[in-house]
């Protein structure tokens, strides 16, 4: 049973109003409260500028990186990037040992690279009767002199040794952070630790929370709470080693040392760092230690000026493409071409609304895919109108020619568009596998464009033509093609 054209037209109008509300820039009535604010246009790295970093896993000798380890490292990187407050980051694996990180709009690339790269393996170790100097690289029970990798090549953290832990209340149990391989890559200049192996009392996996706080003199420090099991262990150790020393170690490098003046239960503080270092360490501890050391293979900063010029040129290209296609359709197909142009405008509106609703990150390649889909959006109309012309040449009535044009052209439209969508899906998968977000952006926008074009060409244009017949307007064949003869007079 055919749905009446009036009902379909009402549905199209309502859909267009909703899409227009989604796409409309600036402030507008939002009954949902904040939906539009949370679905703003998402610009990729090449449009708003920022930082792109290629990280490569560099495990210690004798160890390998499997897919689960790489995925765990990627998840940790994702949590760290979210803590940096970067808008619309892209983090994806490439191959078997690389991770690509794109940070649009980033203001401090050097600090971001340091936060991403550091392993951030926290340990509190027992040093007996001797405090360790700040900045010394040591071997611990989580990695002896023969297996411990060098610590990260970062400046020695300033600070005066002081009370690094204060008594507190044991924390509730929580999910452990990912296990870490000691050390960080890219630090060949740091000497391999030699000498005694210090016993690790607790490590980063024993923390349930880390946060910035202040000490008794108002200096910014790292506060931490332990899980219940680790809290009991820490309490037993400190209560039996009063008067001895312990040191806070991050990536095998001593942060500070302090004497144990009393039993410590479930919480404490880490001192001896600048405010920026405090924030970085909190972020690293909360996100977990990296499952494998990483080194920076490539790092590049993209300027926003290039992005602004690219946006302007892309908009100009899109407008020119729309105008050329619209003129061609009107000149060659007349009234059906004009109706197809209206459907083409609705297509652009629907597609852009979907981009915003789904949170598609627009890149130069993605915009190129959208512009390409503009031409493909009228491809179905060309097939339909050509078939309509043939039916009118055969003497069919206008209504019969319209229905025959759509019915006979539909199999070709369906097969060609589905083939294109399958190709887009393969491109999207391939782009994700090799870490090429530019390919993924192109494939995604093209796939959405092709899917929307099937709706506008087959449903919207068909509804408009049916309404023309229903209204009895523009029924002469000349309105539909310049080379269709007028019907012969009755009696000939």
Helices, strands, pairings?
Blueprint: H1 5-23, E1 42-43, H2 45-48, E2 50-57, H3 67-84, E3 90-94, E4 98-104, H4 109-117, E5 122-128, E6 139-140, E7 197-203, E8 207-214, E9 220-226, H5 228-240, E10 245-250, E11 253-259, E12 267-270, H6 275-287, E13 294-302, H7 304-333, H8 335-358, E14 361-362, H9 364-377, H10 379-393, H11 398-434, H12 437-471
Parallel strand pairs: 1-14, 6-7
Antiparallel strand pairs: 2-4, 2-13, 3-4, 5-7, 5-10, 8-9, 9-12, 10-11
Helix pairs in contact: 1-8, 1-12, 3-6, 7-8, 7-9, 8-12, 9-12, 10-11, 11-12
Question: How does this structure look, described?
Answer:
The protein is of the alpha+beta class. 47% of the residues lie in helices and 16% in strands. The chain has helices spanning 5-23, 45-48, 67-84, 109-117, 228-240, 275-287, 304-333, 335-358, 364-377, 379-393, 398-434, 437-471, and strands at 42-43, 50-57, 90-94, 98-104, 122-128, 139-140, 197-203, 207-214, 220-226, 245-250, 253-259, 267-270, 294-302, 361-362. The chain has a five-stranded mixed sheet with strand order 6-7-5-10-11. α7 packs antiparallel against α8 and α11 packs antiparallel against α12 (437-471). It is elongated.
């Amino acid at each position: 049973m055919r749905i009446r054209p009036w009902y379909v037209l009402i549905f199209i109008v309502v859909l267009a109003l909703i899409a227009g509300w989604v796409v409309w820039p600036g402030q507008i009535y939002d009954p949902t409260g904040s939906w539009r604010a949370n679905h703003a246009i998402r610009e990729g790295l090449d449009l708003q500028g920022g930082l792109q970093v290629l990280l490569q896993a560099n495990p210690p000798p004798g160890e390998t990186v499997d897919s689960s380890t790489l995925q765990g490292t990627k998840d940790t990187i994702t949590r760290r990037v979210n803590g940096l407050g970067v808008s619309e980051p892209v983090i994806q694996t490439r191959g078997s040992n690389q991770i690509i990180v794109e940070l649009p709009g980033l203001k401090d690339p050097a600090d971001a690279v340091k936060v991403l790269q550091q392993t951030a393996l926290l340990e509190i170790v027992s040093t007996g009767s001797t405090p360790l100097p700040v900045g010394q690289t040591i071997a611990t029970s989580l990695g002896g002199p023969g297996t411990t990798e060098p610590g990260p090549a970062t400046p020695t953290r300033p600070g005066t040794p002081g009370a690094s832990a204060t008594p507190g209340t044991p924390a509730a149990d929580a999910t452990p952070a990912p296990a870490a391989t000691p050390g960080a890559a890219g630090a060949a200049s740091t000497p391999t630790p030699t000498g005694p192996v210090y016993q690790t009392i607790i490590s980063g996996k024993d923390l349930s929370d880390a946060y910035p706080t202040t000490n008794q003199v108002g200096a910014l420090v790292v506060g931490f709470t332990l899980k219940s099991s680790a809290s009991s262990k820490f309490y037993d150790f400190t209560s039996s080693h009063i008067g001895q020393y312990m040191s806070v170690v991050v990536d095998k490098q001593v942060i500070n040392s302090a004497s144990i003046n009393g039993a410590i239960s479930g919480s404490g503080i880490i001192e001896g760092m600048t405010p920026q270092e405090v924030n970085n360490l909190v972020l690293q501890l909360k996100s977990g230690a990296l499952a494998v050391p990483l080194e920076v293979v490539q790092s590049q900063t993209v300027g926003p000026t290039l992005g602004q010029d690219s946006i302007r040129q892309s908009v100009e290209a899109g407008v020119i493409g729309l105008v050329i296609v619209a003129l061609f359709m009107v000149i060659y197909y007349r009234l059906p071409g004009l109706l197809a142009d209206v459907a083409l405008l609705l297509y652009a509106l629907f597609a852009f609304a979907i981009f915003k609703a789904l949170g598609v990150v627009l890149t130069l390649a993605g915009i190129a895919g959208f512009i390409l889909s503009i031409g493909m959006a009228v491809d179905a109309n060309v097939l339909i109108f050509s078939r309509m012309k043939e039916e009118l040449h055969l003497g069919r009535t206008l209504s019969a020619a319209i229905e025959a044009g759509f019915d006979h052209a539909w199999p070709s439209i369906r097969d060609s568009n589905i083939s294109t969508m399958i190709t887009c899906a393969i491109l999207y998968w391939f782009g994700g596998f090799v870490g090429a977000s530019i390919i993924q952006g192109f494939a995604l926008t093209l796939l959405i464009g092709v899917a929307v074009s099937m709706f506008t060409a087959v449903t919207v244009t068909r509804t408009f033509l049916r309404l023309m017949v229903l209204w009895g307007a523009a029924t002469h064949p000349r309105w539909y093609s310049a080379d269709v003869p007028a019907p012969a007079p009755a009696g000939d």
